[in-house]
Amino acid sequence: MIKDHLKNLGKITYLILIERSEVSHFNQYEKLKITQQDIIKHILTLPKDIYEIYMNKEKIVYQRSKGLMDGYDINYIYDINEIEKYSTSTKCIIVSKLEDIEKIGEQIKIPIIFLSKNLNTNESINLYNLTSLNVQKFQTIFDGLLKYHDSKAQKEFLEIKNYSIAEKTEEYENLNDLLTNHLYTSSNLSTLESMRVKFSWEQENEIEEKNIVYPIYIIKHITRYIEDKVDNHIPIKPIYQYLLSDISYNLDFSLNPKEYTKFSLKNKNIDNIDDFITTYKLIKSNNLLNDTNISNSYTEEYNNERLYIENLIAIQTSSFCIPNIKLSIHNDKYKALLKEIGNYSRDNHQNIHQSFLKLEEQLSKDIGDWFVFIKNDYSVELKLVSNLPLEWCPQDNLPLMIKNEVSRIPISFGNVAEKLLMDTEQIYLLPNAFSKILFITSFKDDDPIKYHLRNSISTIKEYNFKDKEYKIFESNDILKGIDFSKVSFDKKLEIQEIWEDISNIDELISTLNKNTSPIIVFDLHGGHNEKEEGVIFIKGKAVPISKLFGKVKIPPIVILSSCDTNPLDRNHYNTANAFLLMGAKTVLASAVPIQSREASIFISRLLMRLSIFLPIRLFNVKQNIRWSELITGMTRQMYYTELIFKLRNKYNFKDELVNELGLFVNLHINPLQANFNKKIIEQISLKIGISNEIMNKFIKEDFKFPESLKYIQMGNPELITIATEENMIESFKN
Length: 734
Description:
By secondary structure, this protein is of the alpha/beta class. A 6-stranded mixed sheet has the order 16-15-17-21-22-24, sandwiched between helices.
């Protein structure tokens, strides 16, 4: 991994010292964190790093929106001994008791800034009340602490200060309008405050759509205005352009309603069952947030939990200056359709395409005009926060995950969502980090799919790309007008697959702890029965994934080539969430059961993309690439490949045309061309001799749910960048 000294030196770490508490009844967030959620809101008005202490507003917004530095580094700690785990030079510890300050002072001698929501300011012990602290005061505090650092650190901090204040620009205006504070606008108002926009607001229980839209518009207007104005444009994509979230809730509420009857709840830790059932019914009907006439301890708990989720979302949106588009989408309307898709997938039933079409139509109806914000001829970087598969929302005749670069964070359970929403740290990997990739497998000897993936990888390796692709370049008019001058297969990353065939849980633990690769591929059976937790099968025996908790180290990237690792019709105790909780930054997981041969091709294409496409991108085009983009490009390629093969089965055209069309697709998505889907569909229709109308009818009836849509990017893949050292140095120079 590439280390950047100044980036780490400049970071400010905010540590919230808190006691452990029981979790909420709904999405299982710790109750004490929910009651103290204003702490996060206050932190987001302060600088996220030392650079921002001295920067003006425009420069702060520019750096954040470009993702040039990590976002806010905010962490909960339960014991003062955890402080030493954080190596950041500047630490702000949020405390609630004076005795905590005394204990920390006895153990840790480096200068620390203490912040508190309930304690009064006492500068003699570096304690400051959060509610009265502003950026100017923070700058004074930091300048006063510099003398406690050694001379080398003081010199480096001075360099950061000089860099930050070197460029003066005209700052954008503050707002005169009154904004509305509501669940649907809460995170966007926090983002505007974090961008140092001054405005007035009023609290409302009910809200009109125009009041939801306005903060979104302001955030995008400011970021676009600044990007157009700043001279030194940096040619890198933003980490995100929009965050899409909804009000989906714990899937168990919809999937297992019998668990929430009066009789079943008697066996659970519920004080007032009637109040709980009232709240439960309001949540399921999507009326709780609008019905202010009904109030009890559970409705209050749920509403506060939802606001806490918005504060966690605000860490992401504030860190990268993006708006949160809040969709009024909830579970109950979709539970029957999701169950139907899950059942049809398990039975490999042809009707799945029509079920998926019904799902798309319902999503389209509920979303309405909200996607007007993300309409683009190319692709938009999106972060989803939902328990529902919003990746499948339709946009421009494509699923959202094919049209755009998409990843998702679940809302439940709280410990997973909280970990991911508070993670804004970017990591950088050199291409040779992928020279060895660990494959973990565990099939019984007589399993017919045991060697599917290995055989598929061998076939890919034997393919002579240079000769075959160049012949197509030279001989086919389908490619006329396309600039492929930068395409070269001369540089190739040689990848060694390390296969570990495990026989038991102890071997799995040992293999994981010995691994040094940033990526692991699991090639084995998976499962997730109703009301149970996700499992993997080791030599035919189901092993709950929770057996690994606290026993293994997990790399940042996990690929699960297994069924039901993030199932849309099961509870949240799934395999993907488990790996995210154990330390993975991103998990590529399956929403429904997957077909072995297609899954093998999918993973083989990933290796091909790392081996051939990655060097072209890094060394020929000289651009870094985020993991989210790499996976999205591969998924798009697989999507159109599946379409071409399915059309060949129907229209019986030759392999030569398959190759031509495949390359045409490749050159329209690597790099991505404007209106790529329209051009690809028109060209395929033309070449096989059917009208666009017949093609669209075929897609609607027979190709709504191909295998490529079953793989969901969970976690934060966009925070992983693959780069050469030369490219990274150049980026930081800019």
